[in-house]
Write a structure and sequence with these properties.
It is a single chain. By secondary structure, this protein is α+β, with helices and mostly antiparallel strands. The protein has a single domain, classed as 3-Layer(aba) Sandwich (Rossmann fold), CATH 3.40.50. It contains four helices and eleven strands.
Length: 216
């Protein structure tokens, strides 16, 4: 019930200030819940059953529209691979920004650096999914006019969101045979900055490679 800028819920009077604070807290809770969820999920993973080797050093190639993102991507892959006791080299540290690179030039540089595998990751598409986020009720401290009326309740309304996903294909090649030995297609929901998404994506990929026995 609305009375001169005040609301009464469950016998407790709520001021506009309380409601504003409530909505601010609710928004923070929703954003925290969204950011704490995993942002990347694998939709398909394939490993060559004939490959039984262990990877020692990876030559990392990231395909991105922004050169800054490519550098961050390759550096982060190198960092996380090294955390799994696997050597790695970022492609941008070898090839100039505007260099035209192909399979042969990549293979030659990778062998020169002592790598035994080449990892290539590239975006292959985007998709949007519509989802409904239900409203939530929250307890709000109220004035202590009478026994049992310490808290009133208010609710945030439900709403519809369009979640955008980036679809990425990650392929790992054996340099000796030039055969594909591991491949993953994944979906990353766009909830954070580019750098945060990159770190989350790479962590999922590296952990998956470790679980599949390719690295420690």
């Amino acid at each position: 019930m609305h009375i001169n800028g005040r609301y009464r819920k469950g016998g407790v009077e709520l001021t506009m200030k309380n409601l504003t604070n409530l909505l601010a807290v609710s928004l923070i809770i929703v954003l925290f819940a969204m950011s704490s969820c995993a942002t990347t999920s694998t939709t398909s993973v394939w490993k060559d059953p004939a490959y039984q080797g262990k990877i020692n050093k990876v030559f990392v190639i990231g395909v991105a529209s922004k050169d800054t993102n490519r550098r961050v991507f390759e550096d982060e892959f190198v960092r996380q691979l090294k955390m799994h006791s696997t050597g790695a080299v970022a492609g941008y540290s070898v090839f100039q920004k505007d260099a035209i690179i192909d399979k042969d030039s990549i293979a030659a540089k990778a062998r020169e650096l002592g790598a035994d595998t080449v990892l290539v990751a590239r975006p292959v598409g985007r998709k949007t999914e519509r989802a409904y986020v239900p409203g939530q009720a929250y307890a709000v401290p109220g004035p202590y006019h009478r026994w049992g009326s310490y808290y009133g309740y208010a609710a945030t309304p439900g709403y519809v969101v369009d979640d955008e996903y980036v679809i990425v294909e990650t392929n790992l090649y054996d340099l000796k045979t030039e055969n594909l030995i591991w491949s993953s297609q994944s979906e990353t929901i766009v909830l954070a900055s580019d750098q945060e998404l990159i770190k989350s994506f790479i962590q999922v990929m590296v952990n998956k490679m470790s679980n599949d026995g390719l690295i420690k």
